[in-house]
Amino acid sequence: MSLRDLPSVERLLQRAAKLEATYGRPLTLEAIRDRLDAAREAIREGHPPPQEDILIEEAHKTLDHWLAPTLQPVINATGVIIHTNLGRAPLCRAARQAMIDVAEGYSTLEYNLKRGVRGKREDHAEGLLTRLTGGEAAFVVNNNAAAVLLALTSMARRKDVIVSRSQLIEIGGGFRIPDIMKQSGAKLIEVGTTNRTHLQDYEDAIHERTGLILRVHHSNFRIIGFTTEPALGELVDLGKRYDIPVLDDLGSGALIDTAQFGLGHEPMVQESLGAGASLVAFSGDKLLGGPQAGILIGKKPFVDRLRRHPLSRAVRPDKLCLAALVATLRHYLRDDAVHEIPIWQMIAAPLDQLQKRSEAWAERLGQGEVIPGQSTVGGGSLPEETLPSSLLALSVRYPNAFTAHLRGSDPPIIARIEDDRVVLDPRTVLVEQEEELLRALEGLL
Ligand SMILES: *Cc1c(COP(=O)(O)O)cnc(C)c1O
């Protein structure tokens, strides 16, 4: 066996005209070279030279592999509604359409149609946000981590920021309050203890370098037992006495009361503004159910400072985000958010409706058992809280292998394993994905 038995690059390229037509010449060439290198290596190790057909087939596989999208739609059968690993909130129809509309051509992103002059991208969402929440002014950035960073930087750079020890949280993806504080150039002043912080602790920490009182929503954990924290209104009153602003990082920031769906009460944006917070920060893609964004609402002088800060340019939202956000906010203003926004549809889905779906799945598949189970809201909101659901449980011999096969379907299906059974929760499966889900299951069972 010798290396000379291998075909030349030119010969393979000639035979791979189809690949070249699909993938373009440079990439096809690179894939062929890649496969020939591997073949040479194999020959040196004593293997026979591969046939031309095999080499071309391998080049095809290599090309597919290089171009396969890693960001792709999946079916979420986990029952975790705001699943951070699965892209958080699915967008409502109006938001999807609005994104397509501005993506397809030019738009009024920074253009004032009436006057024919330059406009401001800030104007698109601000009016809707203030009308909805009662805030004086609003500013949108790329995500809530950026919102908190910008607020801290513009309000408290080179100053002290007082935070309760119970609120020095880490949320997924390495966002830690002490780290973000460092980045902003503000100095963290921890007060109180893990379980108990009193108003007096805040007051004792105030001195001439104090620039801000920060309250952070615990988000993804809960402290229970012997605990206390001052209410936001108390922090605002304290701040007023010493002329210190209060920033409330709400995380999820609901505009609708979650308690009406049998859940705990998630802090609402309107409540924080009503309590007098100088600025409130929250995410666009958690309980708002919109695109990834960070939203800051509050008193005009502080919002104006955000706008003017040089960092605001580095964290500004793009046109697709703004289009989707505005379309999502309109549903809240029209009071049909619960019917139109997917995460609220899922939260509000009645148990009997979920049960009908899981029973229909079991019937169609001719196997599996419908069992009671729990869905969760996720997205750093309502930890430990669940919504009663109706699950399809499949007893299969190798549950881990089965879920791996589900992940390998097209589109991939993400399911849970509970008590050695594979369980699928209809709450987070979009109705239009049901057929694909069932077909994949039929193929595997
Ligand atoms: C989720 C969260 C953030 C970060 O928001 P992103 O939109 O993910 O950037 C910040 N603070 C709190 C309290 C959160 O829960």
What structural class is derived from the secondary structure elements? alpha/beta
Q: Could you say what the CATH topology of the largest domain is called?
A: Aspartate Aminotransferase, domain 2
Q: Which percent range describes the beta-strand content?
A: 15-25%
Instruction: Give the bound compounds.
Output: pyridoxal-5'-phosphate
Number of helices: 19
User: How many individual β-strands?
Assistant: 18
Low-confidence stretches: none
Radius of gyration: 27 Å
Report the average pLDDT across residues.
Answer: 96
* Spatial separation of the terminal alpha carbons: 46 Å
CATH superfamily of the largest domain: Type I PLP-dependent aspartate aminotransferase-like (Major domain)
Inertia-based shape: globular
Task: Provide structural commentary.
The chain is an alpha/beta fold and 445 residues long. The chain has three domains: 65 residues; 112 residues, Aspartate Aminotransferase, domain 1 (Alpha-Beta Complex); 245 residues, Aspartate Aminotransferase, domain 2 (3-Layer(aba) Sandwich), CATH 3.40.640. Helix content is 43%, strand content 18%. The protein has 19 helices and 18 strands. The strands form five sheets. The protein has a seven-stranded mixed beta sheet, sandwiched between helices. A hairpin with an 8-residue loop joins strand 14 and strand 15. The two termini are 46 Å apart. Bound molecules: pyridoxal-5'-phosphate. The site of pyridoxal-5'-phosphate (PLP) has 14 residues, from helix 7 and strand 11.
